[in-house]
Design brief:
The protein has one domain. It has 3 helices and no strands.
Length: about 100
C-alpha cells in the first residue's frame, strides 16, 4: 500500500473509533447516573427503615457487568475474583429479598 491508501484507510476507521469512544463514555455516564439515583433511594430506605436488599442486588449486578467487561478485556485473577464475587453478592441479595417478602 502506498501512503495515500494508508491515509484513506485511516480516515475510514476514524468514525468507528469515535463511535466506540462515544458509546463507552455514554455507557459510563449512564452507569454513574443510575448509581447516584440508586444510592439516593438506598439512603432514603435506610433512613425510613425499609429493606434495601433489592437495590443493593441491582448495584452489585451493575458492578458485575462492568467487571465482566474489564475481565474480558484485561484478564487477570483480581478482575475475575471481583467479577465472580459481585455476581455471588447480587444473587445472595436477591435471595434475601425474596425470602423476606415471601416468609
Amino acid at each position: 500500500m502506498n501512503k495515500e491508501q494508508i491515509l484513506a484507510k485511516s480516515r475510514d476507521d476514524m468514525p468507528k473509533e469515535e463511535q466506540r469512544y462515544l458509546d463507552m463514555n455514554s455507557a459510563m455516564i449512564a452507569f454513574k447516573a443510575i448509581n447516584i439515583v440508586i444510592a439516593g433511594i438506598i439512603i432514603f430506605n435506610f433512613i425510613t427503615g425499609q429493606d434495601i436488599y433489592d437495590l443493593i442486588a441491582i448495584v452489585y449486578a451493575g458492578v458485575a457487568g462492568q467487571l465482566y467487561f474489564k475481565y474480558k478485556i484485561y484478564g487477570g485473577k483480581r478482575n475475575k475474583f471481583f467479577y465472580i464475587s459481585s455476581i455471588v453478592a447480587s444473587a445472595l441479595f436477591v435471595v434475601n429479598h425474596v425470602v423476606r417478602i415471601l416468609f
